[in-house]
Amino acid sequence: MRVLLVWPRNERALLSDRLSCCEPLPLEYLGGALRGDHDVTIHDLRLDPPLETYAQTHEPPDLIGVAIPYTTSVHVSREVSREARRLWPDVPIVLGGHHPTVSAEWLNGFSADWIVAGEGGAALSHLACELEAGRSPSPVQGLAPYDSRTGLERDRRPKPAALNDLPMPDRSLLSHHRGDYFHSVYRPVSLIRFTAGCPYTCKFCSLWRMTDRRYLVKDIDRVLAEMADIEGSNLYVVDDEAFIQPGRMLELADAIDKAGFRKRFHMYIRTDTALRRPDVIARWAEVGLDSVLVGAESMTDDELSGYRKGTDPGQTRRALDLFHANGVKVRANFIVQPNWLDEDFARLNHTVQELQVDMPSFSVLTPLPGTDLYDESRSQLISDDPELFDCYHALFPTRLPLETFYHRLADLLAGASARSSPGVTSGADPSVFYYSDDSAFDEMLRAIRGGADWSRPWEPEPVPSTK
Ligand code: B12
Ligand code: SF4
C-alpha cells in the first residue's frame, strides 16, 4: 500500500528551521520497517510544499502517518492530521513520535484512527499489512485505536539487543533532501544512532525512563553498515549518552578506522564518563570526534544534586580541558532556573565568559512530560500550553517579573554569542552552536524577549490521565 509519512513544521519554534533542520530519522526508521512491502513517501513540511499541493499532484495514499516529535509539536501536528483528513477523508491516519510515547496529554482533537507509542516500525508494519489485507487491525503492543489511547502500552523494558532487531533506516527516501539538512556548523549533516537509553536518572530527563535505565547497543557491524549507507561526512550521533561502554567504544573506533571511514562526529557525553577514560576520548578524536554536547547544567553543587545529575562543577572544568587537549570542541548546556534573580543570571554569564566553553547553550528548567520533574510538579505549572515545553519558556513561577526574566535569558544568549570562543572561531564556524550568522539568531532573541506574550491563562483541556 502507499504510505505517506508526514513530519510537521512549527513556524513558531524558537529554535527555528533556519537554525537547525535535521533529517527526520524516526521516519526513515519507519520507512526501513516497511521497505519491500509498501510504497513509502516521507513528506517533510519544513522543506516540502503544503499537503494540499502534494494531493494535487500525487495518487492518494492508503495510510497516513503523522509525527508528533516533540510536546511543542502537538498543535501543529494536530493541524496536519486535520488537513490530511480534509484532503483524504477515507484514508486511515496513525500518530506516533516522542510525545505520544511519553504522554497521553494534549492528544485530544486530532483527526486520527490509530496511535503508536515507542519504536514504531513493527506496529506500523502490522497496521499496514492488516489494513492491506482488509482486516480490522488487532491492537498489538505499542499500537492502539486513537479513541482508546489511554490504554496504549509500549515496551517499557526493551532487551539490550533491541536496536539490532530494527530494520536499517531507509535513507533513500530522503535522498533528494540530503543537502538541505544541517545542524549548526554541520552542513549538511546526517543523523545516526549507535545506542539508546541511559543508566543515570536525571530528574529533568525522560530518556532514562524510556528504557527503564537499560542501555541498548547496536552491534558494531550494524553501526558500520549504517555508516556505509551515509554519503556525507558530518554525523550527528543522537545517542542519549554515547560513551557508557568504553571498551565497546574503543572497539568501534578501531573498526571505523579499519573500515577507512573519514567522518566528523558530534556526540553526547557526560563529563564524568569522559574523565573516567581519557584514552577513549583521545582515540575518538583520532577517528573524527569533532564536538561533544555535555550537560554541564550548573556550576553549583546544590543545583546539580537537585537535578540528580551525579556530577560536580570540578568535573566540568576538567572535562573541558580534556576535550580541548584532544582538539574536541565543547557545547555545554546550562540550565536556567525560573526562580533566578539578576545575580544568578550574572553568575552564569560570568561562568560562560570564564570557562572556555566553545559553544554554550541554555535551557530553562522545563518539566518535560515523562520526567520525574514533571510528575512531581504538574500542578505548579503556570501554563498548560504544550508549545511552551521548548526549554526557552518558564513553566514554573518566576521571581523576576516574567518580562525581565525573558530579557535576562536573551541577554545571556546574546552575551555568549558575542564572546570570542576558543574552539570554533577559526575558519567559517560561527562562535555559538546553533546560531547562524544571519538574522535567524536575532529573530530568536527577539522572540525570547517577547516570551511573556506567550503565557496565556491556564485553561486546562480535559485530558486523559498520563500513562
Ligand atoms: C536530534 C534531536 C533534535 C534535533 C532535530 C531532530 C530532527 N530530526 O529534526 C534538534 C537539535 C534540532 C532538536 C531540537 C529540539 N528538540 Co530534540 N532531540 C533530538 C534527539 C537527540 C534525537 C531524536 C531522534 O532522532 N531519535 C531517534 C529516533 C529513531 O527515535 P524516536 O524519535 O524514538 O522514533 C521512533 C518512535 O518515536 C516512533 N515514531 C516517531 N515518529 C513517528 C511517526 C509515526 C507516524 C509513527 C507511527 C511512529 C513514530 O518510531 C520511531 C522509530 O522507531 C531526541 C532525544 C531522543 N533520544 O530521541 C531529542 C528530543 C526529541 N528533543 C527534545 C526537545 C525538547 C527539543 C526542542 C523542543 C527543544 C530544544 N531546545 O532543543 C527542539 C525543537 C526544535 C523544533 N524546531 O521544533 C526532547 C523532546 C521532549 C518532549 N517531550 O518534547 C527530546 C526527547 C530530548 C530531551 N531533552 O528529552 N532535537
Ligand atoms: S540527562 Fe543525560 S545523563 Fe542524565 S539521564 Fe538524561 S541522558 Fe542520562
Automatic annotation (TrEMBL):
Keywords: Iron, Iron-sulfur, Metal-binding, Methyltransferase, S-adenosyl-L-methionine, Transferase. SMART domains: Elp3 (SM00729). Coiled coil: none annotated. Residues 135-164 are annotated as: Disordered. The keyword Iron-sulfur applies. Its cofactor is [4Fe-4S] cluster. GO terms for molecular function: 4 iron, 4 sulfur cluster binding; catalytic activity; cobalamin binding; metal ion binding. GO terms for cellular component: cytosol. Residues 10-138 form the B12-binding domain. Residues 184-399 form the Radical SAM core domain. It comes from the Bacteria. PANTHER family: ANAEROBIC MAGNESIUM-PROTOPORPHYRIN IX MONOMETHYL ESTER CYCLASE-RELATED, BLL1977 PROTEIN. This is Radical SAM protein.
